[in-house]
């Protein structure tokens, strides 16, 4: 069996701080590189305008800059439309993936909770209503068989029972 040496906490913290320092220097270097690249792009594509001259030449420069801004805004609008369309497609694909994989539902745990505790959990502590669920149940009345004590009534019942008995005997 090979033994795995555990790292001491001091060594672990030292390595973590060294990694963080290295990451900070990398981030600073990336931001500097980004600024240099941005300045190079601006110098190449957007030279400084020549502001010497009369009013007519300055108006001409302004018109050129304005037309360039219009073209850039049109291009930006088109790109934003494409981005929104692709984001919608990505969201649809994500939904399809979720539908295909399916959502795993966790096993439910049996919880014993009264109706009042449920209402407090759902509505928050500010609602202090108590509901007696048993009072809302329907009242079921038992049917009481009425026995008629009339003289002709019991004879009729006996005759009906005799007729039924004859039906079963004949079949």
What labels would you give this structure?
single chain, 171 residues, mainly alpha, elongated
Largest sheet, described in full? none
**Principal-axis shape:** elongated
* Helix-strand topology string: HHHH
| Structural class estimated from helices and strands | mainly alpha
Residue runs with pLDDT of under 50 for 5 or more positions: none
Mean pLDDT: 82
Strand content: under 5%
Helix percent reads 55-70%
Total E-strand runs: 0
Task: Report how far apart the termini are.
Answer: 89 Å
Computed over alpha carbons, the radius of gyration is: 44 Å
SS element count, helices: 4
List the helices and strands and how they pair.
Layout lengths: L8 H37 L9 H47 L13 H9 L27 H20 L1
Protein architecture, described:
It is a single chain. With 171 residues, the chain is mainly alpha-helical. It is built from four helices and no strands. The protein has helices at residues 9-45, 55-101, 115-123, 151-170. The model has no long low-confidence stretch (mean pLDDT 82).
What's this, in brief?
This protein is mainly α and 171 residues long. The protein has four helices and no strands.
């Amino acid at each position: 069996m090979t033994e795995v040496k555990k790292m001491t906490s001091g060594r672990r913290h030292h390595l973590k701080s060294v990694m963080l320092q290295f990451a900070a220097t990398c981030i600073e270097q990336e931001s500097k590189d980004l600024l240099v690249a941005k300045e190079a792009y601006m110098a190449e594509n957007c030279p400084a305008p020549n502001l010497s001259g009369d009013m007519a030449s300055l108006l001409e420069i302004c018109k050129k800059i304005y037309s360039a801004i219009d073209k850039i805004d049109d291009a930006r609008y088109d790109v934003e439309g494409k981005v929104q369309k692709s984001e919608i497609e990505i969201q649809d694909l994500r939904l399809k993936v979720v539908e295909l994989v399916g959502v795993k539902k966790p096993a439910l745990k049996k919880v014993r909770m009264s109706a009042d505790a449920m209402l407090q959990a759902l509505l928050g502590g500010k609602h202090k209503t108590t509901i007696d669920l048993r009072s809302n149940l329907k009242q079921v009345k038992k049917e009481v068989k009425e026995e008629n004590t009339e003289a002709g009534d019991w004879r009729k019942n006996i005759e009906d029972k005799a007729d039924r008995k004859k039906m079963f005997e004949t079949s």
